[in-house]
Amino acid sequence: MNMRVKELIFLAIFACILTLPQIAADLRTLDVIVVGATGDLAKRYLWNALYILAQKERNITDISLYGGAKSKVSNQAFQEIVTESIRCDKSDSQCLKYRSEFVSRCQYEVLKDDADYKRLCTWINLNSSNIIFYLSVPPVAYRGILQSVASHCNITDSSKNFKFAFEKPFGTDFQSSLSLSNLLAKYLSEKQIYRVDHFLSDATISQISDFRARNPDLERLLNKRYVKRIEVTAVETVGCQGRTSYYDRSGVVRDMLQNHLTEVLCLVTRDMTSEESRLQLMKNISTVTLEDLQLAQYKGYSEEVSMETRKKGSSLATFARARIRITGPKWENVPVWLTSGKQMRQKNVYVRIVFRRNASNSRKIDACGSTPQIVFVRCHGDMTSPALLISRELPVSESYLPPGWIETEKFENVSIFGQKGQCFVAFVPNTTVEHAYTHVIANLFNGNREDFVPTDALLESWRVWTEAAVSADRAQRATTYPKGSSLKTVVKLISLPVQVQCLISNLFVGRCDVR
Which residues are catalytically annotated? Predict the structure, then answer.
């Protein structure tokens, strides 16, 4: 090697060394743009989650935050909104100090037309290599926003890491979802698209994959030979008052079953050995039809729709129970039930895997009956906090402990699905549980795509649910149930013959018109 070549190599290496600090600094800079910055989601969850990210993520040395919407809001008024959105105890001086510093980095921009986005993109192009656009706006606004951002923000620049987060609905049926996906694909690459399903970032639900991976003896039982049935349930005490204009265009099937509950089902039943298992499992779910649905509506919903919209009542269901059929050798003929509803007596959110007796091991406990099960609890009855419950007769690994959780005996005297709490090995978080959106924002920053919905899985999900959603729209008036009904009561009611359902629902009305 001659002297000239050596000199050139030395100069190249020296130049790289000089630029390393600047490269590292760029990788630690972050710009976040929340479009819909003064909306309900942003005020309740997003700004607080971004604040927590800024405090916890040590890799961020410089963060700039832009809030945008069509309306004119002064920067001072906007910063007051952000301040009120960040939850700090009045006695926590450190939190109050950091909140003040965080808010000082928040800037409001009117984002109404192309010129507004051009101005915003000028700032972004100058300041950062990591940019998150969080679109907390209806899908109808996507086209204009993406067109402007693509025109002015240079989102194809390989030196910049652009991520775009989108909130549901991701369509209302297969065709609309395909059209929306094609729109996103026109401007963005798949790796830039992050469809948010906050259920996947829930403290309990996010434990499912880790639990399966770390309990091989239990994992081998997750198939039709040992599993008797699977239940994924999310019912709540609140109703639709104040938001019927949205809900009556969606309904319970689109609002909960097609997205949240189906995604959770995939976590429980997918093959853990394959990266493509989520999509493959979705392909193995048979199309859901009206015959697979049991529908009901809480009393008073139709009147709420009449009061809040120009419609004369509504027959749309606010409660649905769906029988899911998974084909293939692993899960064929295993009953799977997805259930969701509003105005129920208690909030219940859980995943329950009920095993056959042949799944039990030598640790059988006679007082616990013959229903070995695993329950991932977000809340259930008297259990108002997250928990993981495993029947003691199931072969859970002795070394298993969920990260950040502890084993507890606090449920020993609690009745859990007809069994005593002492029949379960129970785990609970050992710290205050952060809201799911805190994890959504952290996963978004870190590029953890596992907790977001990819295009192919989304389209498969709509392939499964479109017929059921459209049929539910056209169904005659659903069986009604009183506000505050228990889950068991509603399930029993909708399981009765139609004529009997109607007679019970209208007991004090004196009429029953069933066609």
Answer: 260
